[in-house]
């Protein structure tokens, strides 16, 4: 992808690196990927905006699913049943690249741009 600014390229590279890492299963526990799959997430077709440790045994992140839905998730590897995945697509506002005030330097916006680019 071509970008007008270095900051846009850096956000793109971070989204790509996060996506590649999770698609490889490079996470602290395989339960993380299991929980996402149990919620219907196709790991190989999803784009991951961010992922990280929230607390001991708790991980959170944001992803764009194979259906172009945006989900925020919290996964508890100590108690996977307490994990949550919330569809926040309807609340995106300017994070959607189609919004007139969107900013491609936002991680979620860039993830949607990447998803749309992959879908072509």
SSE layout and pairings?
Layout: H1 6-23, H2 30-38, E1 47-55, E2 58-64, E3 70-76, E4 84-87, H3 107-119
Antiparallel strand pairs: 1-2, 2-3, 3-4
Helix pairs in contact: 1-3
What does this protein look like?
- This protein has 120 residues and is an alpha+beta fold.
- The protein has one domain.
- It has three helices and four strands, in the order H-H-E-E-E-E-H.
- The protein has a four-stranded antiparallel beta sheet with strand order 1-2-3-4.
Count of DSSP strands? 4
Mean pLDDT: 94
- Helix-strand topology string: HHEEEEH
Count of domains: 1
- Give the count of helical stretches: 3
Strand-residue proportion: 15-25%
Uncertain residue ranges: none
Q: Major beta sheet, specifics?
A: 4 strands, antiparallel
Decide which structural class fits the backbone: alpha+beta
Radius of gyration from the alpha-carbon trace, in angstroms: 14 Å
Helix content: 25-40%
- Order of strands, main sheet, comes to 1-2-3-4
Global geometry:
globular
How far the N terminus sits from the C terminus, by CA atoms, comes to: 13 Å
Core attributes:
120 residues, alpha+beta, 4-stranded antiparallel β-sheet, 3 helices, 33% helix, 22% strand
């Amino acid at each position: 992808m071509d970008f007008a600014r270095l900051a846009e390229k850096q956000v793109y590279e971070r989204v790509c690196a996060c996506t590649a890492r999770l698609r490889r299963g490079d996470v602290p526990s395989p339960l993380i990927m299991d929980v996402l799959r149990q919620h219907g997430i196709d790991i190989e077709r999803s784009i991951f905006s961010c992922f990280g440790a929230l607390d001991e045994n708790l991980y959170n992140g944001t992803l764009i699913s194979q259906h172009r839905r945006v989900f925020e998730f919290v996964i508890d590897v100590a108690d996977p049943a307490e994990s949550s995945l919330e569809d926040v697509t309807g609340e995106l506002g300017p994070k959607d690249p189609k919004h007139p005030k969107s900013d491609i330097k936002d991680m979620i916006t860039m993830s949607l741009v990447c998803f749309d680019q992959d879908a072509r």
